[in-house]
Structures are given as structure tokens and as C-alpha cells.
């Protein structure tokens, strides 16, 4: 055990979002990757903001994230290359069953947030610059609201799982990716109140950190991981992941599709 | 209430079966924190005896620094070690980030001042006559140090207990420099955080029980040794 992790060996560092780890998807995929490529993956599960910051410093070899506009910035800067669409699921607005702001069944996410703000109902935000946090912030902006500093608006500063627990304990509203919510739903009293608005689409891309820019980046390993994530076998694993336990897939595989097919511009 | 009872029942089952890599994680915690305390003991006895037995300018300042070190916030230690060890950091070429060695380094920085502080205080409280007696008996410096440390072995045990307690229950630094990697750098505390964030309370409770039991067992052994020493 003393030698664990100290040897050179074939390994890569994957910076990713908490949702891919908290939902259990990576536990399913990484053993297959190891078997296929020989690479051991060191998963650093953080918010998408931190994951992308790691890539921007060359502290990771590959990234799996769900913050498209921030990812595009890194592509433009040349910090990451070979960015490819992997899968999507969607975000849902969750809240207590008694729904004090009356948003159940509202079609528009921004309308729902406006109702929560009007009522001053408690809302728990990630507040950690993750992909989910960035999406939530963009929705408030679209609604023309700035909830920061309001008494009913709280920021947990933690991952999705921990934030769901806090919202659950407080009887508060929150926004979560569907995968993490489903994986935890047996411990939660929160209900899905708003879903299906196209702005709630949650899209995951994989990319490798640019080896030409950072000397210590593992070019071969990063590329192998990107190829693995969009391969047919992996996409099939993603398609079936969670079906048995939750009766529906947690992620919809998208490799090879274009962004416009998903309804993104 | 269901959550509590179901959680505890399930936790006991996990303790029986060792699911969730319970014992592997426990051994790793013991290994990493034990190594950090062993290194801290070397540093602590060396520094502690220098501080206790020598008059030099700035000695009070040195004591103040050690005392501050005893309360170092682990998360600050974690950040400093992480910045040094990241690939983009000054020691990046060592490839130590996200390894058990990085965790041992961070926990040593946390535990060493505690061991040093306890050691210096213990050695200071020994009778000053002891040294002159040993000197009169013609002991060499090294022999003298060894005899004095032997004389102070009980307070040194207390230093080990305090250092181990701080290292094994620490989380901020471990998660930052270790990355909480399954099978590599996941220790009891970081595993608890992960299971809670996954909403898996039963394994979190089981891991917490082991962590408490571990700290209790280490303290029990050390206390027993102390009491036997005092009796003899």
C-alpha cells in the first residue's frame, strides 16, 4: 500500500464535475477505460469552475465538464483541445412539496425563479462557480433579477449532493442536474417542480488539456480518454446507466451529434 | 428518526461485511497518519530538545512560532502544500500531488508543531538537576539526550497521541493534496465527506464509527502503557 500512487505507471488526471462522481457514472466507466487503455484515472471531482481552472493551469490531462460557455473560452485561449460532445441530461427546479411560491408545472424556468423571488421563498444556490452554478446565475440574469445578498437566497459553496441535502433540510428551492437528484431522491423530500424548458439543458463535453501548451500534460492519455468517452461502447454504457435502479437513464449519450441538434445554438 | 436507526443498522452491517472498502480505507488512514506522526516525532524531539535546553536569542520568538504552529489551520496547510506540488507549482516535477506521500507531507506539517510543542514543554519541566547529575556522571551529549528523552517518555507519549489525533481527523488538507482518490488517497475523513455528499449516510456512519474507534484504540494503548510505567 505504501507504494500506491507513488510509482510512475500509466495514469492521467481527470478534472471533472461533482455530478459525474456523485451519480456513480465514473465508477462504471473508469474500470472499462483502464482495461482498454491501461491508464489509471485519477479523478479530481470538483465544480466545473475549478475543473476548468485546473485545465487552464495544466494541472490535469483531461476534463469532463458541463459549463459550455466557459469551456469555449478555454478552447479559444488554447488551454484545451479536442473538445467533444459526450452526453446530456437536464436541470430541474426542485422544491418542497407544499411549494410556497406556486411554481409547480410552470413551463418557463425564468418565470419560476421570478415567482420564488417575489415570494421571497428560501432558495439554496451552489455558489461554487460550478457548471450548475453558472447555469443558475444565467437564469437569474435572464429573469432580470439579482438575488445575491437577499435574505432568502443562500449559497452553500458545496457540491450538488451536499447542496441538495441543505435544501432538503431547509425546505428550500434549488436547481440540480437530474442525475444527481435521481441518485439521491430516496433521501430527499424535494420534488421536481419545473422541467423541460430548453434553457435547462445540461450538456457535458470531454476535452484534453493542450499538451503543446503545458509540458507535463499527458498527451497520449488525454487523447485516449476523449476517444474512450465518445466511443460506441462507452456511449452504450451511458445509455443504460441508472435504468435498472431509477427506471430511466441518468444521461442521454450524444457523441457525434451537433450542438444544434440538441437545441443549443 | 428512521434515517438514524436505518443508518445505524446498515452501518453495523457494513462494519460486519467490510463493504465500501471500509478496512482498506482504515488501513490507509493508519498508514498515512502513522507515518506523519513518526516523522513528526523525529522532528519534534530534535527541535523540542534544542528549544528546551538551549539559551539563545530569539528563543521566546521560536516558542511563539511553535505554539502558533500547534494551531495551524489544516486547510491553509493543504493549500500551501497543494500550490507547491501542483504540476504548475515549483515542485511539480516530483509528481507528488494526489499521492499518499503528499498527504503524509501535509499531515506532518500539521502534526510536527504539536509534537514539538509538547516535547519542549515536557523537557523543560524536567528537573534541571538531572542534567547536571548526568553531566557529573560523565555522560556524553548524545547519551545525555537519550537518557533525558527516556526520562520524559510519558509526556512524549502524550505528544504522539495529540499528533496522531490531529493528523487522522484532519480533512481539509487531505482532500486538497490527496484528491480523495478511491483506492489510493481516500482516507476515513475524506470518505465520510464523499458518502454524505452522495446521500449515502449508512457508510458515512460506519466510517465515522471506525474513525472514533481508531482514535479511542490508539489512546487506550498509549494510556495503558503510561499507567503501567507509572506503577512500575
Ordered list of secondary-structure elements with their pairings:
The complex is a heterodimer of chains A (265) and B (232).
Chain A: E1 11-16, H1 18-22, H2 25-37, E2 40-45, H3 48-57, E3 62-65, H4 68-77, E4 80-95, H5 109-119, E5 123-125, H6 131-142, E6 153-155, H7 160-170, E7 174-177, H8 178-184, E8 191-194, E9 201-209, H9 219-230, H10 232-240, H11 243-246, E10 252-253
Parallel strand pairs in A: 1-2, 1-3, 5-6
Antiparallel strand pairs in A: 3-9, 4-7, 4-8, 4-9, 4-10
Chain B: H1 2-17, H2 22-53, H3 59-70, H4 74-85, H5 100-124, H6 128-136, H7 141-151, H8 153-168, H9 172-178, H10 188-197, H11 201-231
Helix pairs in contact in B: 1-11, 2-5, 2-8, 3-5, 4-5, 4-9, 5-8, 5-9, 8-11, 10-11
State the shape of chain B. Answer: globular
Mean of all residue-level pLDDT scores of chain A = 91
Q: Using the coordinates shown, work out and report the CATH topology of the largest domain in chain A.
A: D-Maltodextrin-Binding Protein, domain 2
Q: Label the CATH architecture of chain B.
A: Orthogonal Bundle
- CATH C-level class of chain B is Mainly Alpha
Task: Tell me the major beta sheet of chain A.
Answer: 8 strands, mixed
CATH level-4 homologous superfamily of the largest domain in chain A: Periplasmic binding protein-like II
Amino acid at each position: 500500500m505504501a507504494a500506491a500512487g507513488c510509482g510512475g505507471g500509466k495514469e492521467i488526471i481527470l478534472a471533472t464535475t461533482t455530478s459525474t462522481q456523485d451519480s456513480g457514472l465514473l465508477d462504471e466507466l473508469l474500470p472499462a477505460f483502464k482495461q482498454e487503455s491501461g491508464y489509471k484515472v485519477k479523478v479530481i471531482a470538483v465544480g466545473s469552475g475549478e475543473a476548468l481552472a485546473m485545465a487552464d493551469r495544466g494541472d490535469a490531462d483531461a476534463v469532463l465538464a458541463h459549463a459550455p460557455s466557459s469551456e469555449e473560452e478555454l478552447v479559444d485561449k488554447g488551454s484545451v483541445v479536442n473538445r467533444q460532445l459526450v452526453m446530456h441530461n437536464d436541470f430541474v427546479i426542485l422544491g418542497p412539496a407544499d411549494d410556497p411560491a406556486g411554481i409547480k408545472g410552470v413551463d418557463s424556468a425564468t418565470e419560476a425563479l421570478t415567482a420564488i423571488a417575489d415570494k421571497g421563498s428560501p432558495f439554496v444556490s451552489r455558489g461554487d462557480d460550478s457548471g450548475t452554478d453558472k447555469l443558475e446565475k444565467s437564469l437569474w440574469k435572464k429573469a432580470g433579477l439579482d438575488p445575491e445578498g437577499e435574505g432568502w437566497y443562500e449559497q452553500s459553496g458545496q457540491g450538488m449532493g451536499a447542496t441538495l441535502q441543505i435544501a432538503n433540510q431547509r425546505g428550500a428551492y434549488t436547481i440540480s442536474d437530474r442525475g444527481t437528484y435521481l441518485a439521491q431522491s430516496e433521501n430527499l423530500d424535494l420534488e421536481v417542480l419545473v422541467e423541460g424548458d430548453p434553457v435547462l439543458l445540461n450538456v457535458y463535453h470531454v476535452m484534453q488539456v493542450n499538451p503543446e501548451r503545458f509540458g507535463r500534460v499527458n498527451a497520449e492519455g488525454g487523447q485516449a480518454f476523449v476517444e474512450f468517452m465518445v466511443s460506441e461502447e462507452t456511449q452504450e454504457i451511458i445509455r443504460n446507466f441508472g435504468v435498472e435502479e431509477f427506471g430511466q437513464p441518468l444521461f442521454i449519450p450524444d457523441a457525434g451529434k451537433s450542438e444544434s441538434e440538441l437545441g443549443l445554438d | 428518526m428512521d434515517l438514524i436507526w436505518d443508518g445505524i443498522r446498515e452501518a453495523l452491517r457494513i462494519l460486519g461485511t467490510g463493504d465500501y472498502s471500509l478496512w482498506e480505507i482504515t488501513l490507509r488512514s493508519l498508514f498515512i497518519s502513522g507515518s506523519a506522526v513518526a516523522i513528526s516525532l523525529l522532528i519534534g524531539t530534535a527541535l523540542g530538545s534544542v528549544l528546551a535546553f538551549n539559551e539563545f536569542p530569539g528563543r521566546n520568538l521560536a516558542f511563539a512560532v511553535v505554539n502558533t504552529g500547534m494551531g495551524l489551520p489544516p486547510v491553509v496547510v493543504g493549500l500551501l502544500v497543494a500550490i507547491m506540488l501542483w504540476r504548475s507549482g515549483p515542485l511539480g516535477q516530483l509528481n507528488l500531488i494526489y499521492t499518499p506521500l503528499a498527504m503524509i507531507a501535509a499531515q506532518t506539517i500539521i502534526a510536527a508543531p504539536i509534537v514539538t510543542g509538547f516535547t519542549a514543554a515536557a523537557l523543560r519541566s524536567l528537573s534541571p538537576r538531572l542534567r547536571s547529575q548526568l553531566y557529573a556522571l560523565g555522560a556524553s551529549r548524545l547519551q545525555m539526550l537519550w537518557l533525558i528523552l527516556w526520562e520524559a517518555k510519558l509526556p512524549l507519549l502524550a505528544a504522539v497521541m495529540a499528533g496522531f489525533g490531529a493528523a487522522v481527523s484532519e480533512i481539509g488538507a487531505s482532500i486538497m493534496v490527496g484528491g480523495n482518490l478511491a483506492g489510493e488517497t481516500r482516507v476515513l475523513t475524506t470518505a465520510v465527506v464523499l458518502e454524505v455528499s452522495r446521500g449515502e449516510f449508512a457508510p458515512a456512519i460506519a466510517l465515522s464509527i471506525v474513525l472514533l474507534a481508531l482514535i479511542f484504540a490508539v489512546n487506550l494503548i498509549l494510556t495503558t502503557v503510561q499507567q503501567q510505567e507509572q506503577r512500575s
